[in-house]
Amino acid sequence: MEKKVYLDNASTTYVSSEVMAEMLPCFNAIYGNANSVHSYGRDASAIVDRARDRIAHAINASKSQEIYFTSGGTEADNWAIRGIAHAYSNKGRHIITSQIEHHAVLDACKRLEEEGFEVTYLPVDSHGLVKIVDLLHSIRKDTTLISIMSVNNEVGTIQNIKAIAKIAHDYDVIFHTDAVQALGAIKLDVQDMEIDAMTLSAHKIHGPKGVGCLYLKNGIRIENLLEGGSQERGKRGGTVNVPAVAGFGKATEIAVRDMSINQQKLRNVREYFLKQVGDNIELVSLNGHPLQKVNGIVNLSFDMVDKESLLMLLDMEGIAVSAGSACTANSIEQSHVLKAMGLDDEKANGAIRFSFGKNNSKHDIDHCVEALKKSVEQLRSISALTKAGRK
Ligand SMILES: Cc1ncc(COP(=O)(O)O)c(C=O)c1O
């Protein structure tokens, strides 16, 4: 069989066997409704409590009750943005975020604008960093919430979260961060970093899809997300997905436990990949911050190459990578992140995201770079012919 290589780990990851082992009993042996008072319910509830404890411990939350389970990162982002904005709307109706956030944050902000809120979308520099001076200038008397992502999912740039949170608090503003791409990649300590609300998701860290959480610091108000049940302290009603939550708890525990060893592996793979690309392919540039970035994400622009065609050719060679931005109706949108970083159309149009996982080997990289070289050469020869034909 043709060799396949998965280099799209920022998109999702496989569920690890340790996580699956944690989840399996919750499908049949321990199948109670975690809300029931009888022993079946108490057994299920103990599993949910354990997962909550594990996640709280992993991010140094002061109480497990500060973790609210959701159906994933998108739900937690939407809830944080709209729920906090609504809960504090008597104080003010101005929100600050950045132009490079995930659409779960950006589209929630758009919805708020339709309701009459005002939103400032901070620009970023060419490395994808929010400038502190821009943040300071944008804070107003009626600002209630600042939401800046910890790690960008397309280019891997790490924001100065602790400094941003500190500024938010100096001005008595609540601070939320989307840390979906940060969990397991950088240390997250909500107390030390002064984070009020934080979004996490399980499937980026070898946990199941469709589960995540919102960390919400004790005392921060939020509008209820779903009415109709007392689950999640009445804020998000609905029977808890016990297997998913159990898997999320275990995946988080492992991601934090193994972080330094995994990061070392990813760093080695990334450095090897960049060296191989540099030695074999010309006219390539790196997007994102050269140093302040996670090890698992590399975004490269290939001059004279169309990313959609490159993705297709690589897929035919068994290499799974991504354009980093969302696909709609089988075509790939122009990346709002690369645009905000000021990339010209050619660079943005030729940008591909390679995201590594803990099991990727040098052999995988060799296979990928071989296919990449062949595909890029093929596309460039067509592009050169097209340009010559137009002259
Ligand atoms: C930065 C970021 N935020 C939010 C999400 C959404 O998370 P989920 O897939 O769990 O809804 C993603 C997933 O791609 C992400 O990368």
- Poorly predicted ranges: none
| Secondary-structure element string | EHHEHEHEHEHEEEHHEEHEEEHHEH
CATH topology of the largest domain: Aspartate Aminotransferase, domain 2
Summarize the amount of helix as a percent range. 40-55%
CATH class of the largest domain: Alpha Beta
The largest beta-sheet arranges its strands as: 2-8-7-6-5-3-4
From the spread of the alpha carbons, the general shape counts as: globular
Q: Given the structure, what is the number of helices?
A: 12
CATH superfamily of the largest domain: Type I PLP-dependent aspartate aminotransferase-like (Major domain)
Describe the model:
With 391 residues, this protein is an alpha/beta fold. It has two domains: 5-13 and 259-390, Aspartate Aminotransferase, domain 1; 17-257, Aspartate Aminotransferase, domain 2 (3-Layer(aba) Sandwich). It contains twelve helices and 14 strands. A seven-stranded mixed β-sheet has the order 2-8-7-6-5-3-4, sandwiched between helices. A hairpin with a 2-residue loop joins strand 12 and strand 13. Helix 1 (17-23) packs antiparallel against helix 7 (242-257). The model has no long low-confidence stretch (mean pLDDT 96). Bound molecules: pyridoxal-5'-phosphate. The site of pyridoxal-5'-phosphate (PLP) has 14 residues, from helix 3. The site of pyridoxal-5'-phosphate has 14 residues, from helix 3.
